[in-house]
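Last lecture ended with a question: if I hand you only a sequence, what can you say about the shape of the protein? Today we answer it with a concrete record. The protein is single-stranded DNA cytosine deaminase. Below, first the input exactly as provided, then the predicted structure, then a couple of comments.
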Amino acid sequence: NQIRRIHRKTFLFHFRNLRWALGRHNTFLCYQVDREDRDSIVPFHMGVLKNQVLLETRLHAELCFLYWLHDYPMLFPSQHLHITWYVSWSPCCDCAEQVAAFLASHANVSLTIYAARLYYFWRTEHQEGLRKLQREGARVRVMSLAEFKHCWENFVYPHDGRPLRPWKRLFNNCHFQAKKLQKILQ
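The predicted structure:
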């Protein structure tokens, strides 16, 4: 259930980097997959996923992505894939575990994760999940204005060429989330 772009109002609600984001029970994942072709990086695919229900099982957006991608690295093991995620929430401990296992078994895949907010960052199991991702080579970062703008320009409709207007406390919340993440990953 991929979509190419996310509606502007949905993006502004779900990606707003509030310290305490109540009522946001869905994760949206904007992704870019690039592949190495000789000595250059070539765009391969981009899109948006969100949590889904499959056969009465709730799948988080990260696992939806792995299901979508699962055959590609094995079909082309000599081709390196560079994956970038822009997520409304950082992965929960269960998703982090599965993504880390995927990375461990696919040396030809690299992953960078930019999160708008950290998911229950005070809980040790979610902290350990983020550390596990890092140990398996994932680069985990907090979204800054540059990443919010990138999402706005590449994954959001309709913005009609209008630039993203930073919301109140965007910069303070970026700094707060980045400090928390830095402390977790040390």
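Comments.
1. The mean pLDDT is 91.
2. The CA atoms of residues 55 and 64 lie 13 Å apart.
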